[in-house]
Amino acid sequence: MSGLAIDVSVTPEYCAEESSDAELRYVFSYTVTVHNQSPHSVQLMARYWKITQGSGDSQEVRGKGVVGQQPLIGPGQRFRYTSRAILQTPVGVMEGGYTLLNTYTQRAFEVPVAPFRLAVPRQLH
């Protein structure tokens, strides 16, 4: 256990102008806020996402950092970024986590991201 208090919140949004029912292309943006509530700086080293389509098909995405960065987040600071997911169904679920480094102890630890729903608003579908 890291003992560090890291809060992650996600706000998804449907991108109607980039999506197409005819092409089975549903684009979602999601804004993630990582709030470091601990007394030590942390660095976001890697990400992991599991994206599950409404059909049940899923894919996993792993990579260094987020949006081309491995941000250092100081005590009490927040790091916010926006990324995208493209689904083939109008509804899906994303979940995952981040690997962070405690810069004080130089130990890596995992922070899970609870599942969140990606869905076309009913009035649009």
TrEMBL record:
InterPro entries: ApaG_domain (IPR007474), ApaG_sf (IPR036767). Residues 1-125 form the ApaG domain. Pfam families: DUF525. PROSITE patterns: APAG. GO terms for biological process: error-free translesion synthesis. It comes from the Bacteria. This is ApaG protein. It comes from Halomonas citrativorans.
